[in-house]
Amino acid sequence: MKKDRFELFAKISLWITEYYFFSNLLTIPLWWEIPKPDFINRLILIPFYIDLFTWHIFGIFSLVAFIVKIIMWAKRGELFKKNSILNLILHLLFTVAAFGEIWWILAESF
Predict the structure, then answer these.
(1) Which of left, alpha, beta for 92 (phi over 0: left; psi -120 to 50: alpha)?
(2) Rounded to whole angstroms, how far apart are CA atoms 23 and 20?
(3) What is the pLDDT of residues 2-40, one digit of tens each?
């Protein structure tokens, strides 16, 4: 039962980092100087406001989840299996990219 919960945690934490990466990617066109319909700007503002108020929670969660995944997979002897390595690489990639996007968005906004 515990193994199933941890695997679910590993997948959900990866999904959250993917969500922040892609939502930040969708937010970047707000600062482009091309004319866009007003409803597009309003639609893009939804993930912007989500990021604006939750970026610090995401940062703490993604770092803690990454460390927990390494510890748990190492404890189980599954750290160097294909699925766990792929999950860790994707988690790290999406986290670093989302941090960069959040930094850029906040730097351009204020």
Answers:
(1) alpha
(2) 5
(3) 667 888 999 999 999 999 999 988 888 777 777 878 888
- Joined together, the tokens standing for residue 4 give 């199933």
User: How large is the angle between the packed helices 38-76 and 82-109, nearest 10 degrees?
Assistant: 140
Nearest alpha-carbon partner for 95 in 66, 67, 57: 66
pLDDT tens sequence across 72-109: 999 988 889 999 999 999 999 999 999 999 898 888 87
Q: Longest C-alpha distance within the chain, in Å?
A: 54
Runs of H (alpha helix) within the chain: 2-27, 38-76, 82-109
